[in-house]
Amino acid sequence: MMILNLFGQTLSRRMILALIAAPVGALHPHVAAQMVAAPVLTMEQAVQRAIEWHPSVEEAVGRLDAQAEERNVAKSGYQPRITAGVGSDVARGGDDNRWRPRANINASQMIHDFGKVRSDVRAAEAGDLVFHARLLFAVDRLARETAQAVVEN
Q: Are the C-beta atoms of 102 and 86 separated by less than 8 Å?
């Protein structure tokens, strides 16, 4: 929407209000020139910038990434487990009862868990869909609000 065409530059309501509200001579000529020469964004550009910047979208992306890690943790139930450590046993025998560390290594593999891991994986995959939907909702809401702001200006 063209509000005022001054020296070939289109001024928006915001620019006009800033110029009116500023006392005479309060704006540096360089600042005033930037306000007049500010590029006008299309609705698509404004929505794209809002989506790239807004914290609600960044939060939704972070939650989606966290849920993807939850899915990976659930899938790890299918993998073999190896644990290692040092025992704190006291060696008994002979004349010296002293501490001798002993290395412990344990390996285990799940054979069958009656569907517990499969159930956990399916629940995590359903969580992926929920957080993906929340991301799309955040983007849609932000796009609508930004588009309304562009139309109102």
A: yes
77-99 burial code (b ≥16 CB/10 A, e <16): eeeeeeeeeeeeeeeeeeeeeee
Q: Taking the C-alpha atoms of 96, 97, 98 and 99 in order, what is their torsion angle to the nearest 10 degrees?
A: 150
In single-letter form, the type of residue at position 138 comes to A
Query: Which positions ≥6 away from 103 have C-beta within 8 Å?
Result: 84, 85, 86, 87
Average pLDDT, the chain: 79
> Residue holding tokens 């073999």?
80
User: Is there a contact between 21 and 13 (Cβ–Cβ < 8 Å)?
Assistant: no
Is the model's pLDDT at 69 over the cut of 60? yes
Question: What is d(CA 60, CA 139) in angstroms, rounded to the nearest whole number?
Answer: 9
DSSP state of 109: -
CA 100 to chain centre: 49
pTM of this structure: 0.58
| Beta pairing class for 90-91 and 98-99 | antiparallel
CA 107, 112, 114 angle in degrees (round to 5)? 140
CB 56 within 8 A of CB 142: yes
